[in-house]
Amino acid sequence: MHLDLLEQRGVHLGEPYTRQLDGKLRELRFYCGAERVRVTYWIATGRRIIMLTVFPKTRMREFAEVERARQAMKRCQAEGHTLDEEEQ
Fold it and tell me: Which among 41, 35, 58 has a CA at the least distance from the CA of 5?
């Protein structure tokens, strides 16, 4: 359901479903049973949603997980993983 909302609304989807972490880096927020889960992503050129990382939300792990997502986004941007091969 949350992914469908993100696909439909893109940058206009706000809290409580998603929130900005840092610059273009955002997180999709939902529960899996009683566990809070986060999927980090960014929206690239052409409104393409790039999923980065998935993690269970805990205060102790949050900083490290956001940093891991930040590094994944930088790596994707540096390597040009923003378009399908057939679109290049």
Answer: 41
> Is residue 88 situated within a structural domain?
no
Task: Quote the number of domains for the chain.
Answer: 1
As a whole number of angstroms, the distance between CA 12 and CA 79 comes to 27
Would 30 be classed as within a structural domain? yes
CA gap 79, 61 in Å, rounded: 27
pLDDT of residue 67: 92
pTM: 0.79
Q: How many residues does the chain have?
A: 88
Neighbouring residues of 55: CB distance < 8 A, sequence distance ≥ 6 = 37, 38, 40, 61, 65, 68
Note the pLDDT tens digit of each residue in 67-85.
999 999 999 888 876 655 4
